[in-house]
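Methods: holo model generation. Sequences were used as deposited, without trimming of termini or removal of tags, and paired with ligand SMILES retrieved from the corresponding compound records. Each pair was processed once, and we did not select among multiple samples. The sequence and zinc ion SMILES for this entry were:
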Amino acid sequence: MKKRDFGWLVSLPFYAVHVAAVVGVMLVGFSWKGVALALALYYVRMFGVTGGYHRYFSHRTYRTSRAFQFFLALLAQSSVQKGALWWAAHHRDHHKYSDTPKDPHSYRDYGFWYSHVGWILSTETEDTDYSRISDLARYPELRWLNNWHVVPAVVLAVGLWLVGSWPALVWGFFVSTTLLWHGTFTINSLSHIWGKRRYATTDYSKNNPVLAIVTMGEGWHNNHHYYPRSVRQGFHWWQIDMTYYVLRALALVGIVWDLHVPSQKVIDGDVEVRVKKPARALAPQVETETSQVPVPVAVVEALSTPALSEAAAE
Ligand SMILES: [Zn+2]
Ligand SMILES: [Zn+2]
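and the model returned the structure below.
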């Protein structure tokens, strides 16, 4: 694992939440109500991560109003994964430099733990590169929220304590947040290690049904690297993608619109897409989920970069 400068002071709250989860459960005791609360807040906030941070802010796979855009940022940031602008800027770099030394959390270059959590605790990734997210940085409310990124999480924690006292705070915030962090982080670590490759992308991304359940559809990570602008990451009916189902429901009532989906030809891998950058000497194996011949398709860099010229919100 690459040695980098870890911000120990900045990392302390990260470890403190883990300790509070374990010690807290020992103090308030086990309860099924607590487990249900932890899981409910896990999945509600996981939608903030997947439907907000990832599919909206990072990839702009659909459009929405400015008010709902702000709500998405609030919900996403209640997961305590820093500002939506910070998240999107780093994630766009992940796609641009996937599994190379410039990738902020390259499993190939820096190892499992760095790709899972080390990169977040590193001082090298503390800042937000606004040049990577100029389409979003023009909204002052998002810039404010990016600077004060812990506000939504603090409001949630205090709210839980006021409504349900210590058991609600322990289960609804500390336990739920710890699980939510590691659930999310599997996409940067395990989804580049464990699973099958359907498309010959220039990285190590994998499809994994278990991780798709844990992360509301993000486990179809090879599909996602193949076509990052798709609002759906499960390309087939059997590839469960709960984030996409929620977005479809929101589209039905007009809260979001212009959901971008790939054509059947793209999904079938029948379209030859040229790679802009030289494909790195990558691994090897293009395993397929079926016995089909590996498809002659590679991800094109342009597809990983959201259409910055589009208006973000109306
Ligand atoms: Zn990835
Ligand atoms: Zn992505």
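The two ends are 44 Å apart (CA to CA).
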